[in-house]
Amino acid sequence: MWETIVIQPFLNVLLLINSWVGNFGISIILFTLLVRLITHPLTVKQFKATQGMQQLQSDPRYKKIMEKYKDDKERLSQEQMKLYKELGINPMGSCLPTLIQLPLMLGLYQSVVRAMAASPVELFRLAQSIYPRFINPAVVLPLQNRFLWMDLGQPERLTVFGYGIPVLAILVVITTFLQSKLIEPPSSNGGQAEMMTKSMNLYMPLLMGFMAYSLASGLALYFLAGNLIGIAQYSILGRANWKNILPFLKGKETDQTQGNIPVKVVDVVPEEVPQKPSHAKTTPSTDKRMTKPHKQRYDRKKK
Amino acid sequence: MKKPHILLIGMLVGLTFVLSACAPGPRVSGTPGLELSGDQAFVAYSNFLYALKANSGTVEWAYPEESKNTVLFFAQPLVIDENVYVGDVAKTFHKIDRSNGNLVWTFTGAKGYYLGQANEGHGMIFAPNNDGNLYALDLQGNLQWVFETQHYIWSQPQIGPDAVYISSMDKFVYAISTDGKQLWEREMDGAVVASPVLSEDAGTLFVGSMGSDFVALRTSDGQKIWSFTAEEGIWGQAILADNKLYFADSSGFLYILDPLSGAEKNRVQIGEPVIGGLLALPDGIALVTEKGNLKVLEFDGATRWEARISGNVFQRPVASDDYLMVAAVDGDNMIYAFDVQSGAQKWSVTPKK
Taking a C-beta distance cutoff of 8 angstroms, is the pair B80, B21 a contact? Predict the structure, then answer.
C-alpha cells in the first residue's frame, strides 16, 4: 500500500527528472524542490496556524482565562475552546499540515534511498518499481552516481591534503541550525516550550549531521537541499526571523525604534513627549491609539 | 526540566535510527554468495564467510572469528586450490585458508564495496569493485595495477590467454592486457550485470546487457560478430554447452542460439525472471528463477526435474558431481542442496556461527 501509493510514484518522478537532466545529484535537488512546491500550500497553512496560536498567547483574554481558571482544567479547556471559536483559530491547524507532510517527506527520503541502488538485488527491485510506459529502465539504470566530487552511493568526504573532510555533513549541520533558528519565535517567557525549542535547535543539527556523515552522500545532498529550500520558503513567506542569526539586525531595529519614538508620539500628544523617559516601553502604536481622555487617565495613573 | 530534555533526545535518537535503519555500518542489501568446491561449500553472507560440509550443511568454520557491524560479505567467493578469496563491503579483500578459515592476507586499497566474484589467472587475482575499478593483485596481495571503469563492476572478470575481459555497469565491455592497459572497449545497449563468457578457443566473447542486447565480440579487436535482441533485459551469465549458447532474460525466456551465427535454435518459456544466470552440467543445464523455481533442463530445453525454493534467488546455482546448490534470500532457509541427478532435496540450512 505505502509502496504503491507513495514510494513508487515518488521514485518514478525522481527517475523521470533524472532521465531529463541526466545527473542524479541535480535530480535530487529538483525533486526535493518539486515536493516542497507541492506541499507549499500546507506549509503556508501551518505557518498561519502557528502564527495565530502565537498571537493568541499574548491576547489579554487568553491570559485572563489562563489566570482565572488555572485550577480548573476542565473549565479552562472549555473557555479556551470558546475563545478559539470566537477568534476563528483551529488549535490543530498547525499539526494537521505537518501530519500530512510527514509521510510525504518520509516517502521522499525512501525514494531517494531506493534510487541509489548499489547492489544487484537493490537494482532489480528498483527496476521492478519503474513504470515501463514512462521510463525505460535500460536507459535510466543504473543512475550515474557521480556528482561534483561525490559518489552519491557512498558517505561523502572531500580529500584535502590527504584528509577526508565531510563537507556535506558540515553544511547539513549549519543549514539545519540556521533553519531552526530562523523559525524560532522571539523569546517570550523562558517556559518549558521555549526550552524544548532551544534544545531541539541544538541537538537536531548534530543528529542530522551525524546522519549526513554516515549515510550515502545522495541523502546528505537531499538533507542539504531540503534545508536550503526550507530557508528560502520561510524567507518568502516572511517567517524567517533573521534577527535570531544576525544579531546586528536586532540592534539596528532597536535603534530605529528608539529613534522613532519621539517623532511618532509627537504626532499624537506633542506636549507630553519630553517628559517620557528614553527607555519607555510604550510603543508608538500604543500611543497612537490613545485618545485624549485615555491619555489623561494614563497620566493621572502615572502620577 | 531534565525530563523533556531526555524525552527530546530520545525522540531524536529514535528518528535517527529509523532513518539510518538502525545500522551504523554500510547501507547495502545483498544476497548470499555461494561457491561449491569438492566437499566444501562456501557461503558469504552478512558478517561472515562460512565453510560448510557439502554433504550435510554443517558449519566447519566461520570467518572472521568475531562479527563486526561494518564488515558484510555478499560477493561470491572464489576458491583456488587451498584458498578462498572474497571481498567485503568494508572495502577489504581477503585471502583465507580454506582448511581452517585463517586469514592469509588482506588488500585494503579499494574505495568501494566488493560485490562481484574475483577471478585468477596470469599469476594474479582480479578483484572487481563497486568503485568502478578492477584491482589486479599478485598472489601475495600486492597491488599490480588498477583498471578504471565509470560505474560499479558486479561481474566476474574472464581470463583469456593474453587479456582479461570485464563488463561494467557503465554499459561497456573492456578487454585489458595483462599489464593493465585497455585493449578495446565496446558499448552495449544497457548496463552489464552479467559476466561475459569466453568461447573455448578464446576467440569470441559473449555478453548480454540490461538493454536486452546479446552480442558475440571478437576478442582480438572487440568487433561485433553478431547480435541478438531478447524480449527483456539480460541480468545473468550465459553458458556454452553442447555446442550451443544459452542465456535467459528478465521476461522469463531461455534462449538457445548457435554460437557461431547467433541464429535462434529454440526459445523456452520459464515464466519467471532469471536474474542469476545459468550453469552448465555434464548432461544438461541448470537455472533458478528469481522467485525460487530451480530447473534442470536437457540440452534441448526439456525439463528433467524442478523444485521450488522458498525465497528469492539472485545467483546462479553451483554444482559438484553429487550436489546442486542454490542460495536464497528472504526464504525459510539460505542454502538448499539437491541431488544433482534426481532433484531430491538433501538438506537446507541457514548458516550460523
Answer: no
